[in-house]
Structure prediction request, 143 residues.
Amino acid sequence: MTQLVLPSHTNSLGTIFGGTIMSWIDIAAAIAAQRHSNKEVVTASIDRLDFVAPVYKGWVVNLKASVNYTSRTSMEVGVRVDAENPKTGETFHTASAYCTFVALGSNGKPTEIPALTLETDDDRRRFEAAKTRREHRLKQKQG
Prediction:
């Protein structure tokens, strides 16, 4: 997903509001989750989000989202955010996040989703790392 940083997206310093990037992350992740599941999806959580570098008015923001892990009704989607200075062509990693989505059936309740097909070593590495993060999230949720 690609967005242009407009004046309405920026604060008094001319840098983008963090909430705008958060919204774009949620949208990009939802698109990936919906494409994988062929279902409507809702955001269940967004893990820690760190802003690595500022993004300025007039820059281009590129968001890449991929489904890393699936369980029965939920999935983890990783999103990487890079910004591009159109005057210099330089790109900067600006943020990353892991989002959890739940697929909904026609009754509005969680519904089963397809398992991931792990084709590459990178796919398997992402899956295992996401599985570990999921276990950690579930432990935190239990108290």
